[in-house]
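Hi support team,

I submitted a single chain yesterday and got back a structure, but I'm not sure I'm reading the token output correctly. Could someone confirm the output below corresponds to the sequence I sent? I've pasted both exactly as they appear in my results page.

Thanks,
R.
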Amino acid sequence: MKLFGSSRIGLGGAPLAGLFSPVADADAVATVQAAWDEGWRYFDTAPHYGLGLAEERLGAGLAGKPRSEYVLSSKVGRVIYEADSPEPDGEGFAVMSNRRRRWDFSRDGVLQSIEDSLRRLDVDRLDVVFVHDPDDHYEEAVATAFPTLIELRDQGVIGAIGSGMNQTAMLTRFVREVDIDAIMLAGRYTLLDPDGLDDVLPACLENNVQVVAVGVFNSGLLSQPRPAADATFNYAPAPPALIEKTSNLADLCESHGVTLPAVALKFPLFHPAVAGIAVGCRTPSEVHTNAALARTEVPAPLWPALKSAGLLREDAPTPG
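Hi R., thanks for writing in. Yes, this is the structure output for that exact sequence:
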């Protein structure tokens, strides 16, 4: 199935659940509406995000939208269950909840996770289901999670299957060893970390697997025209050498009349394996900002200039 329309950009759902800081229900729903108004038709979420809260809020934002007009993905690997008392979520989401999560890649866990996701999203089907973060669960993912998803795909219950991870090595194994349709590649094909070129992206081309590139700003370092001294890279403080490199990237972008975030957002889209990108947004303003970046024309001479300056790999696909 084709994951993206002509815009090739979609909404990542983690911030809707208050990733790192709270988000009100109304703001989350308005963010989904803003993405729709911008023409985005790919929406991604997961049970992990806010213990199901992101799915509920995304479902509320998509309520009434024609189901045939958008692509919806969620994930399996963590099952959400009810506990006796509320407590703060300990995995980065600003929520207080009776809910807890547990790792579960079993057949029953996959089936339960999908059923629960459909209920929280208030939809009758998921277009794509990703096995989520199976870094420490390779054997169970291959033995039970993927076969269950393949069975559901073959039955027409779901449209496509894959895996979403923050690494390339295991994703490459899945692409080569399992009959999957897509991967979600988080932070491993960006201006600062294009290492997906070494393994997973060629494997996807060889096996006709579509790539959804996410984390294109590497959790913050590439999200501003100039990097701040306290910027984060992959959710940790960015080392000084990386901040210096990012500053050099920003200088060269500015010399060509374009901002660093616009270039960072565009870069993954030139690889032939990348179907599109998903960006996490928590407010309508963030959606509109990212949509404007996506519409920005990056001057063609910038790409060879980045390579000549040693700021971009020579083998990274770019226009021309």
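A quick pointer for reading it: The chain has one domain: 9-308. Let us know if anything else looks off.

Best,
Support desk
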